[in-house]
Amino acid sequence: MSGPTSTLKPPKPAVKPLTAGQGCGCLLLIVAIVAGILWLIDRTNSSTTSTAPTGAPTAQSNESMALQIVAASGDSPAAYKQQLDLIAPHCDEPRDQVAGMPVVIQKTLKDRGVNESMLSIITNGGMAVKAISGTTRCADIFAAYAALRIPR
Asked: 0.70 exceeded by the pTM?
């Protein structure tokens, strides 16, 4: 019996593997994002101050700064604070530093052509943080989130 024979081909992978250059670029991006977050942490530890209308310096926390940015963008500061309340206990870093991480991530993404709200960043990055049992370095989680969001 002769007839057409079919050759089965393996399915094409859905995701192309990274080449050596792409992997190196991704690693450098993650290092740059972590460096930005560490700069934020250092800035927090050195007591950021602003001047009140009376002329007396007042401390402005990363959290209050982030909430102001969220409000100015049209998102809900209450929703941002709720997400922060959910993830802060899972982070090794202090709450105020965690609150400022989406600020750094948003700027990093924007510089690379990705527009994403801080509420979206803290919500989506927070899902990864909450999935880990115990506590973790949230700076690493948010840096990895940013690296995955940047188009190649």
From this structure: no
